[in-house]
Amino acid sequence: MSILKAAIIGGGHIADQNHIPALKNLADQVEVTAVCSRDLQKARALADKHQIPFAYDNAEELFGSQNKPDLIINCTANYLHYPFTMQALENGCHVLCEKPPAITAAQAREMADFAKMKGKILAYNLQLRQTQEYTLLKKCLESGQLGEIYHIKADFVRRRGIPGWGNFTNKEIQGGGALMDLGVHILDLALSLLDYRMPDRIAANTYDFIGKAGGKGLMGNWNAESFEVEDACFAHLSFPDNVSIMLSTTFALNTKSEKNVNLQVFGTLAGAVLNPFSMYTEIAGELANIKFPHLQETDIQLANTTAFLDACRGESSNICNAEQGAILQEVVEKIYQSAQR
Amino acid sequence: MSILKAAIIGGGHIADQNHIPALKNLADQVEVTAVCSRDLQKARALADKHQIPFAYDNAEELFGSQNKPDLIINCTANYLHYPFTMQALENGCHVLCEKPPAITAAQAREMADFAKMKGKILAYNLQLRQTQEYTLLKKCLESGQLGEIYHIKADFVRRRGIPGWGNFTNKEIQGGGALMDLGVHILDLALSLLDYRMPDRIAANTYDFIGKAGGKGLMGNWNAESFEVEDACFAHLSFPDNVSIMLSTTFALNTKSEKNVNLQVFGTLAGAVLNPFSMYTEIAGELANIKFPHLQETDIQLANTTAFLDACRGESSNICNAEQGAILQEVVEKIYQSAQR
Amino acid sequence: MSILKAAIIGGGHIADQNHIPALKNLADQVEVTAVCSRDLQKARALADKHQIPFAYDNAEELFGSQNKPDLIINCTANYLHYPFTMQALENGCHVLCEKPPAITAAQAREMADFAKMKGKILAYNLQLRQTQEYTLLKKCLESGQLGEIYHIKADFVRRRGIPGWGNFTNKEIQGGGALMDLGVHILDLALSLLDYRMPDRIAANTYDFIGKAGGKGLMGNWNAESFEVEDACFAHLSFPDNVSIMLSTTFALNTKSEKNVNLQVFGTLAGAVLNPFSMYTEIAGELANIKFPHLQETDIQLANTTAFLDACRGESSNICNAEQGAILQEVVEKIYQSAQR
Amino acid sequence: MSILKAAIIGGGHIADQNHIPALKNLADQVEVTAVCSRDLQKARALADKHQIPFAYDNAEELFGSQNKPDLIINCTANYLHYPFTMQALENGCHVLCEKPPAITAAQAREMADFAKMKGKILAYNLQLRQTQEYTLLKKCLESGQLGEIYHIKADFVRRRGIPGWGNFTNKEIQGGGALMDLGVHILDLALSLLDYRMPDRIAANTYDFIGKAGGKGLMGNWNAESFEVEDACFAHLSFPDNVSIMLSTTFALNTKSEKNVNLQVFGTLAGAVLNPFSMYTEIAGELANIKFPHLQETDIQLANTTAFLDACRGESSNICNAEQGAILQEVVEKIYQSAQR
Amino acid sequence: MSILKAAIIGGGHIADQNHIPALKNLADQVEVTAVCSRDLQKARALADKHQIPFAYDNAEELFGSQNKPDLIINCTANYLHYPFTMQALENGCHVLCEKPPAITAAQAREMADFAKMKGKILAYNLQLRQTQEYTLLKKCLESGQLGEIYHIKADFVRRRGIPGWGNFTNKEIQGGGALMDLGVHILDLALSLLDYRMPDRIAANTYDFIGKAGGKGLMGNWNAESFEVEDACFAHLSFPDNVSIMLSTTFALNTKSEKNVNLQVFGTLAGAVLNPFSMYTEIAGELANIKFPHLQETDIQLANTTAFLDACRGESSNICNAEQGAILQEVVEKIYQSAQR
Amino acid sequence: MSILKAAIIGGGHIADQNHIPALKNLADQVEVTAVCSRDLQKARALADKHQIPFAYDNAEELFGSQNKPDLIINCTANYLHYPFTMQALENGCHVLCEKPPAITAAQAREMADFAKMKGKILAYNLQLRQTQEYTLLKKCLESGQLGEIYHIKADFVRRRGIPGWGNFTNKEIQGGGALMDLGVHILDLALSLLDYRMPDRIAANTYDFIGKAGGKGLMGNWNAESFEVEDACFAHLSFPDNVSIMLSTTFALNTKSEKNVNLQVFGTLAGAVLNPFSMYTEIAGELANIKFPHLQETDIQLANTTAFLDACRGESSNICNAEQGAILQEVVEKIYQSAQR
């Protein structure tokens, strides 16, 4: 297997903690050759820390170098997903882009079309797909144990989890709040169970009461005065063949759990809950509850990076691909539109 | 206090078990003088059992008798709520009608208008309003502890609770399934918290997979072949001032709990859960969870009948009144319309 | 369906509390016409209490009467199971006999052979077969979910449950202690899962330390000085095709649980535990634990009496029949022999 | 106290993780001078890692060296326990041998006899004897609180714990499966409570269904095709004075617990459970359950090595000695014989 | 055994629910011949309900009647304990008097002295002495398992248990609040463990904040305006031989438990908690916690009445006798004096 | 902010583990320049370990050096708190002294007066004041949610926590046992809630049964023969305005919990428990229990050292100051006096 050359664009926490360690773990398939960041010092420090040979403060330079990468990990801020991904595709690179795909549906659509035209892999880092629980859920669905899914409750809810760092409350940079940051994860899981069908009816409401009022923070203290995004989003998605999703995603909500990331999936033969994974069905004519007490935690970033490399090599892969990303972004946009009416 | 004369129309289980015992308990305010049922033998047996003097198989006879009642308890099947209520109002009686108000929104509207014209009390037996939990929720809301409510999750969900008796799966008689029978209760609680505002946007889906497939029943065994109504209904209600409700109501769903009847109320200052009642808020700058370990169960039918009698006497009452019933029925109808698109 | 005439022999607690109420509940199939007890006064009192027409103190009289019964419920002490059952069969009656079948294997064999010769139903009141849990276990076995069973742990263990009344500690009357009284129940369940195969190797030990020492009783206080039977029995049963059972049955043991009545069944595809019913298997490549949270308690005496009547009418029935009873008694005898070596 | 010289034979995981660290912790009593392994490179690496001066690939060389050891830790594969132990004894060394003592009863007997003849200590590393729980159990037995023990349930059961590494499923190398690897531990604890009496009657069954069928592994994935040993063993041991043991030991079983290592000990005055340690008895005429909430985990390897060194110095020691090992191996062999009939 | 004649003085709830049923249950020892109450109609109704032959509204009449009682159950209000008990003794009757013994220490002393002079049994209905837990505690103490007791925490604490009926908040009638009504029970248990030694140092505080402020009642709603007694009392009792008791007794306190009635007893060898009964000690050199999971609830009124009758017959009895009652009342008085300083 | 120079007197565990790390963490405010210990080698080793420039075995030398400190951390044994604190104040240093303030009330009073005269800060390291729970309790009290506090239960109780090291059982060095070592902490918290009012009545008992008898130790094994202090102390404190405290503090007690450090605070409007922090009150007319599930553990030594430095800089601080320390020591002395009577 030939070894691919990878470059990182965006030198923040997620590059340092998630992507570079995963790539380093896959040294038989990929070599990290460069880090590119607006801040050259930061790029160099990160490169040094991980023993990566080159550092740039400029994407042109990166793509123009002798060591031109085969693939790019796009770790930039949300509003930069589009320009850097387009530039990388233009330069013939595969791209693993952080979520959300982009700021607008139009961008994500253009990115998908351009990747297709260029014959390159564009994929998104929605790594919750790689948990043992979701893998098992997919297996149970594919083996017919759930029957047909007709309703899903999708939750990514935090009680007081407005991040006290970064740009999470800045609308221009992030494109939105809880939905853009958290909701896309759980929405991707739900849509993937439905083969990324497109809903034909969306009703949604968004709120920002707690974010603008301020209060106790459990993920650092946020600035209520500069809070510009939604702290809560509730949406009902309905599909042409009468399937429905109820989505709840919040940065802050006056609720019991500190954090609830879950799917409840209702099928004609069985229901399933993602975390902890369980099924509710009938066995031998009686109602049965099934638990799986021995599921093990997996390194989901490692698994998702592996899935991306599989895709780059033309193998089958369960990664969120460019086309799915475009649909996901369109759904997100329609949710915001419904809420803004 | 003068004693009112009450007559029962409809001689079924709910008259026998709920209404007549409650009225008998309030003998200082009301006297049950007659039972009226299509089946005279049944009417007489019920009257004898409860030492009620008169039995009829005919409403005209009842209203034409010397012992003309002051108020009627309408315990008939759903599709008879309208005609018997109208007849009772026409005859100058107050009416406590079983839920749902009627089969159509137009009927419920006409009933409300006619009651107003006649100057009589028309109310509905949505007795979950009388639990200590809901009473406390209302008090906390009114005293400002919740702030403004902006989102409610309303659930009346059964795992395998399609009743194996009566007409619960017959569309003509009942007007619908889980929503008509169970959903109206929890919807009434939610709308009452919002002062019975009218939602301006409703998106809903209904299903009948389990009902039509058959299977294990936990409330007797139902006939899958004659199952005509929805076994599950999921709806998103949105109000002009950006408040939203997510409603889930089912007769049957592949889920863990045998039965879940609950409200989760999210306000700007605190959230509340109805069962068991609890609040989630901030106290002294820290996140606080509040429980009320000493709430006592109350006889909610007795309390609701009392509330009706209060209304009849012109006193303030928290009963679901005719106007609220008309709005509730309209919401129900819009949910069905959205689901049938 | 013609109504069978039943007579009770033995006027003790089990006739009064179990058998007569069950028969009375099945009045469309059976009529209790007589009670027979050594003590005529006792017989008459029991008959009067349950509105049974005739009372006798003598079986000959019973069988010689005009109202000759079609079936007999043998509720006598263990050592009388044989003579009264033989007499009843001789007189052309079906017999439902209390457990254990008899005092010796030879008696039980003779009873089975005689019933066969007479063309009458002889069955034993091992009513634990009728629990929802055991019924479900059988269904899961028959549908292949357990694979082949190769090992069973069978427990009927009490901490301090030596009955403080009756003849439970008298060897001549009872034939034995915990094994005769409790062990036969759980052994019957285990053997029935194995289609009543005969074990070819039995190793067992019995004890009477606590019974003879005396101490705190949880089922009344027993007389340690007249204690003659085993208070504990542990046995290993091995079958020709390499299946095994480990049996533990005690009246008294220094253990945690007040009472443990259970089967643990180990099959090639899944294991099952009887109480509360659960299964341990693999689903979709992962280890799965299955619970059945909605099993309902049933009236097992009513169900067993019904099963007996089914058998009398020539219908299929899961009751412990005469042939099974003979095998059960043989196994019991071999256990005692192994322990006495 | 003079310092003994110790050499390790067998350079695997158990030498590296258990024995060498324990010896190093006891530097005031013992000095590790050499490691001997078939693979010299492995021997040297291990020696270097632990700063041990000499490494050999040949036992003759070891025993012929100037630095002749006083004692040997035999960490070889099961089938090599016999030859290397005999060689060490021949060379005048004490031996701490890994469990099981040998492959056959005859070997273990010969080893014990030879050690006695040579006046050397031979002991086995059955270190579960050193837990605080077992120590306390012994103390309670010795102080009379349990009375006389008459029955023991001994369990070392894993749900899916067939090791996915090493030679655990190879019959020639290991001598057997679950019984040889796990059962000997719990059997040693049980027999030690009975002063290593010899049972005079053994009935046993062994199975290999899951091992040969394959499936989900919780300790790595095993190769079902080369699976040669028992995955489950159930045995009943009976002693001349009417004491009995029920042994259950499995690598794989369709049961709830991932792992259950326990003794339940039933005495005339009290019963005890090993993990977590508890007693069931009578106090002041009432049934009492006793827990010991403050037992602390101990380093059982360190304690067992210490016990071995105590024995080498002629002090009293609770280690499994050569004579006990011979009895243990004989019991194991009889269990296999009973199962193979 | 000759049958004693008993008369009831005071026709309230405690006579009806506790004393008369207990006496009726002991018909082989005692016969209830009369009820005496200020209100003749009430006396007669109570007598009729329990089939008691005579009813009086006047104690003189009772004592002057032909059916002069052998013993009196004094069920009057606290301030009447003294006069009616004295009158009964004067008339040669034994007396079982409700608690507290009297209103003042002087009264209780006089009652004890007069009973002694008259040679009659005077005892108090402190029936918590008869629980299985307290009986077991006494047994453990007497058998030496606790060693010497040196400290006791005695609690009879309610969160919001000011009775909403009767005279519980009236100082003149009751003599006090929580201490008089509840504290005497737990104090009697504590003092009885110490052989009713007299403390030589008492420090105490009493409060009435909640009682006077009003609020939610869990035992009916009390009248805050007429609240005259203490709702909380905390006292430290110290004995000449350096034993101490900490007493907490409340009608109302802002605490978690609705009700806590308990002793914690600290001895030199073990500690014990009364409810649920448990001991904390050392066994075999390790710290041990002992539970008694099979204690059964007993009918403590029946047992206390039996104990009284035993005393009347001159048998040994664990009832609170006249002398103990005088000491108890003196301790109560000293607690109030300390609090009033 | 100018950087203060700190010196440590007393080179033991608490200096090494608590004070020096805290000071090092506050390097922007304070610099540790010297360690002083009787044992110069120990002083130097500690200084080296923490990169502190100077080490002395003599306080005169320390105070006479060029690098004269601005503040002293007095980490000496209890009986040396007084002399070294006085010397430090004499030399113009602020002092943070370990608890208890001194051995006698007179010493503590003199220390406070001298500090005042010298215009220096003297404070005590009672760092439990800095937990999030106590901080929240104070906030709730100050905001009026508790109303007026009238009773406090203060517990610092260990089951078998007599330290097996140090001088904890030596009366001359320590001044006392559990009260001096543990009780002062919880007493300080309680008194601080009451604004350090002085109680006017104290009743107390102390014991040494377990300490002198010996037994199982959970904090090492103590020497029973040289045990000179109290292992248990129970006291009742009463204040002029009818507030009371019940204090329990033990090194050893036959109780369930290994360790219980807690306050139960009873106010007119609400009660509070410190660990885990909870409140018991009325909300909306119902009894409410409030929990705070998201309190985070804080570094209480760091917080207390910060509070001391705040005080040194003349800022407001919640540290236990010299005046409070004098009152605390007086209360301790009165408790001992009451117990010794």
Automatic annotation (TrEMBL), chains A, B, C, D, E, F:
Pfam families the record matches: GFO_IDH_MocA, GFO_IDH_MocA_C3
Residue ranges annotated for the GFO/IDH/MocA-like oxidoreductase domain, each copy included: 136-270
Molecular function (Gene Ontology), one example: nucleotide binding
InterPro entries in alphabetical order: Gfo/Idh/MocA-like_OxRdtase_N, Gfo/Idh/MocA_Oxidoreductase, GFO_IDH_MocA-like_dom, NAD(P)-bd_dom_sf
Limits of the Gfo/Idh/MocA-like oxidoreductase N-terminal domain: 5-125
Protein name: Gfo/Idh/MocA family oxidoreductase
Native source species: Dyadobacter sediminis
The organism's taxonomic lineage, starting at the top: Bacteria, Pseudomonadati, Bacteroidota, Cytophagia, Cytophagales
